[in-house]
Every structure is written in structure tokens, then in C-alpha cells.
Sequence to fold (296 residues):
Amino acid sequence: MDTFRSGRQLGLANSFGCIPPIFRSPFLEKVAFGTHLPAFAELSRYFVDFNPPSPDCLLRDWFDFFYNILCERYRCEYIYKNAIATNIFLSRHSFQHSYMTSEIRSAKSRADVAILNGTSTVYEIKSQFDSFDRLEGQLEDYKKVFDKIYVVTTEVKAAYLLDHIPMPVGIIALRNNGALRTVRECESNKENIDPSTAFDCMRQSEFCRAVSGILGPIPSVPNSQLYRTARNMFISLSPSVAHDLMVQQLKSRETRKPFTDLIDGAPVSLKHACLSLSKSDKIANKIAERLNSPLL
Fold:
């Protein structure tokens, strides 16, 4: 509750930052366990002038209410992530052949959003609240792993970036109506990735499958030497082949059915939040149930 109290102390003008935490996985777990009511009660008091839903409205309507406030008054990173989830991933791809994640680390940078399908695409978000201080380094890191690279930002910042970041990086702008507009298409970077960095994006079971599938069985070595042995084999591959093997392994990380059902049935406001959730099937089913139940 401290997060929400801080909003009251700062006043309404600065309290919009109290809303984004309800769109994160830890809060969805609270929904599953039924401990979300105090946060909604306190938030509704902050934003009573915005005419919140009545307590007998469905929980999904409450999430939509606070999401609309963010869209209109506080376009934080979640608004961008959710736009990518709804306008790109869910509208163009299927769970069967694609995978979306915010967990891929490329060198020293962690991708805001990455989509793995026939290739790899990374989206680096720069909202109105972000600076470009780290952008150059982030883009250089992404070039070591990803085929397609985009910066997703505001309309104003997108115009600025056109003259300040070179190809192969593309630029996407979040429009006032919430749609995404491609300001500049990216170019393929697959031939330039670094196999050693791509190798480190995979889990042990994944890099073992990737290496043995194309180069034959990994020599029998102690577990302490497995990483180094497999890595030395993997970096002998061309950048293009290494990239495609990495993509093949990462997109095989399946989204289990209770979560696909949860994502399909979730309101637009919660698409990315549900895509990011990785818990038990029981939790996914409980969240889906509560979203279609009254707040009280």
C-alpha cells in the first residue's frame, strides 16, 4: 500500500504513477489470491473525479478504467508494451508459432519487448518520460542478437530520431489514438549478429538442442565444462545460422493453454500483463475467473 499512499502525498498531478503497478505480474497474483481490493479502493478514492465504475461492475471494467486514465494522462512504458502486444503480436501472430517476451538480455541490455517468430524483432521503448542517454549503447547491444530492431516512442521523439539514429534501426511512433505508426522500416541485421551473445540468450537445454541439432552430439564432459564446450561449438557457426537456431529455440517456449485462454479472454487493457505472467495454471484460471466477477 505504500506505493498508493505516496501518490496521495504528492497530489493528483503526480499520482498517475500509482496506477501502473496494477498492470504488473505481482499485482495479478494478488488478484488470483483475492488481496487486490484494498489497492483498488484506495486508487478509486484518488481518482473519484474521473467517475470510477461502481463496486458491482466487473473487475475487468476497473482495469479498463485505470488503463484509460493512463492512456489519456500518463503514457508510461506499459501503454507502449500493451500497444505492441495488441497491435503487433496478438493481431499478426499465433501462440503456436510465435513467442513474445521481456526477458531476453542482449549483452548489457535487456529488451523491453522481443518477438520471436520466423525471425527476431526487438522493440526498445522510449516514452515521453525517458531520455536517449542510453539508447546508443542499447542499440549496439541489440545488433548482437536481433534481426530487426525498432525504437518505439512518441510522435515528436520519432521525428527527432529520424536524423539521429542510422539504419538498420527502424522507428515506430505511438499515436494519440493509441495506434502504432511505422515512421521508418528497419533493415535486416541477421548477418551481423554475434553468435556468442546469441548463445547466452538460451537456457542450457536450449543451447544443447541447438548445438547438437546441427553439429552433432556435444562431447561428454563434466557439467562444469558443458557451457564452454557447447559455446565453442556454437560460435563456429555463421551469424545467420546462429541467429536462426537461437530463434528456433526461444520461440519453442510454449505458452500453456490456461494462459492462452486468459490472454484471449482478458480485456485489451490487460493483454501485455497477462502475456508476461508465468505462474501456475491454477493462478491463470483464478485470474480469468475474477476478471469476470464484480469487484465486490
Observations:
- The beta strands are 99-101, 105-106, 109-110, 113-116, 120-126, 148-154, 170-174, 180-184.
- Residues 77-92 form the longest helix (16 residues).
- The mean pLDDT is 92.
